[in-house]
């Protein structure tokens, strides 16, 4: 893997290494210079660059997936490859940048979307190259350049994605350094970036601490933080299909997506049937004694054990001395909503199941479990009234009904793809238009020809 990546890196000029710099000031200045060129580009040329980014993402998707798994130890290559193909095909480009117009007796007014300039983007280790590439497409479509601050545990794969974006630009005649990063990003370099006068917008995709830091920076901030998405199943659902969908959504990339099902709230009368079908589809139900050992492993002194994040179910079970069947995909157990492996967002294929007396009790428990993140929630039901009640009560940026969670990102459902879901700051599923600002242009008493 390392030799393969090094061979690919030789294509980049040594002096710039595809947008990767030694210090943050040089990186920001390079991105600022590139943005001055980008701002003068016609929209068609931005789209030309984006089309080439999509092409390279498809070509390099499997390599990026393997690099991500190897470097971070999280997720699986197959699902990460699918995520790269999904973002290549379904991340909006310049088509999302639209103009509004008003005309009347007093002339013509346009509201157009313009670039912020140089955007500072903090990216996670859970979806490293996916976030870099998805953000690059949207931010470049808006006419911006980007300074990326990758998670230290995913520097190699994140920076390789940065290099691909720059190569895509150069190959079609665009500027170099349209996205930049550092060889050795740290908390100090991220802090320097956030305070820099030439960074007007900061976009953070990660945990609650990094989002809080961005929102405390004094800059315009877009925060895509944590969620603990519950999935609610009522008595009217297609129980067999619900079980399959929940297992598929929970286990996709070993539960790393922030939108994935993290716990189940099921009505009492269908819980046993739901568990039966979940076990039929790769669920492994553990005993109380095994649950105690698993809890001790996953929550070390009440703190999430990062070495367990993104591991597959069989690996997690082997770490507590349980040999699971080959077909095992997900760890199942029952408990109260307060159980630490239910109340905490784990990002592991572990599903705690909570029983509810009725729909009102189920909604109350699910809302509590989401913890007010307003991120994602899911429900399986044929009762439109129940779906509506839960949707209003949970008030999340994403609400998936009768499908796996990943349908929210256009994978088996309608809509565009994004890996930056800004629930905390209210933008929801971000795209190119999110990374632009509104500009009003007024021509008084002219250009109205009605």
Search tags:
alpha/beta; seven-stranded parallel β-sheet; six-stranded parallel β-sheet; 20 strands; 41% helix; globular
How would a textbook summarize the main sheet? 7 strands, parallel
Kindly state the number of beta strands.
Answer: 20
The helix content is 40-55%
Strand content: 15-25%
Structural class: alpha/beta
- Order of strands, main sheet, comes to 11-14-15-10-9-16-17
Distinct helical segment count:
15
Q: Which shape, going by the Cα principal axes?
A: globular
| Mean pLDDT across residues | 94
Report the span from N to C terminus.
64 Å
Cα radius of gyration in angstroms:
23 Å
Low-confidence stretches: none
Short structural summary:
The protein is 41% helix and 20% strand.
Can you describe what's shown?
- This protein has 450 residues and is an alpha/beta fold.
- The chain is 41% helix and 20% strand.
- The chain contains 15 helices and 20 strands.
- The strands form five sheets. A seven-stranded parallel β-sheet has the order 11-14-15-10-9-16-17, sandwiched between helices.
- Strand 12 (299-300) and strand 13 (303-304) form a beta hairpin.
- The longest helix is centred in the N-terminal third of the chain and has 30 residues, at 43-72.
- It is globular, with a radius of gyration of 23 Å.
- The model has no long low-confidence stretch (mean pLDDT 94).
């Amino acid at each position: 893997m390392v030799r393969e990546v090094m061979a690919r890196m030789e294509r980049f000029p040594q002096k710039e290494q595809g947008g990767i710099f030694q210090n943050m000031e040089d990186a920001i200045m390079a991105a600022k210079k590139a943005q001055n060129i980008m701002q003068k580009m016609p929209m068609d040329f931005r789209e030309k660059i984006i089309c080439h980014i999509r092409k390279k993402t498809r070509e390099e998707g499997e390599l990026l997936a393997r690099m991500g798994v190897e470097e971070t130890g999280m997720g699986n290559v197959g699902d990460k490859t699918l995520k790269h193909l999904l973002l290549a095909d379904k991340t909006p480009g310049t088509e999302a940048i639209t103009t509004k117009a008003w005309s009347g007796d007093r002339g013509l007014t346009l509201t157009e979307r313009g670039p912020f300039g140089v955007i500072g983007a903090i990216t996670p280790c859970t979806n490293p190259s996916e976030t870099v590439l998805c953000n690059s497409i949207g931010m470049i479509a808006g006419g911006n350049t980007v300074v990326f601050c990758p998670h230290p545990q995913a520097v190699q794969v994140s920076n390789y994605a940065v290099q691909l974006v720059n190569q895509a630009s150069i190959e079609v005649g665009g500027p170099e350094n349209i996205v930049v990063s550092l060889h050795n990003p740290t908390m100090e370099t991220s802090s320097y970036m956030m305070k820099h006068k030439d960074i007007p917008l900061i976009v953070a995709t990660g945990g609650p601490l990094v989002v809080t830091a961005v929102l405390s920076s004094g800059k315009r901030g877009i925060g895509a933080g944590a969620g603990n998405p519950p999935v609610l199943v009522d008595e009217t659902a297609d129980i067999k299909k619900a079980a399959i969908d929940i297992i598929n959504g929970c286990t996709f990339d070993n539960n790393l997506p922030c939108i994935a099902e993290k716990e189940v709230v099921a009505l009492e009368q269908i819980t046993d049937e739901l568990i039966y079908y979940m076990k039929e589809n790769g669920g492994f139900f553990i005993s109380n004694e095994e649950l105690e050992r698993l809890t001790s492993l996953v929550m070390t002194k009440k703190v999430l054990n990062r070495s367990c994040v993104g591991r597959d179910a069989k690996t997690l079970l082997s770490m507590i001395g349980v040999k699971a069947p080959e077909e095992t995909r997900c760890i199942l157990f029952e408990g109260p909503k307060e159980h630490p492996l239910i109340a905490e967002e784990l990002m592991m294929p572990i599903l705690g199941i909570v029983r509810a007396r009725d729909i009102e009790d189920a909604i109350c428990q699910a809302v509590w479990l989401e913890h007010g993140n307003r991120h994602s929630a899911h429900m399986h039901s044929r009762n439109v009234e129940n779906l509506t009640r839960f949707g209003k009560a949970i008030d999340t940026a994403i609400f998936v009904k009768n499908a796996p969670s990943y349908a929210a990102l256009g994978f088996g459902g309608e809509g565009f793809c994004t890996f930056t879901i800004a629930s905390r700051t209210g933008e929801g599923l971000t795209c190119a238009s999110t990374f632009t600002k509104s500009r009003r242009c007024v021509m008084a008493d002219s250009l109205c020809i009605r």
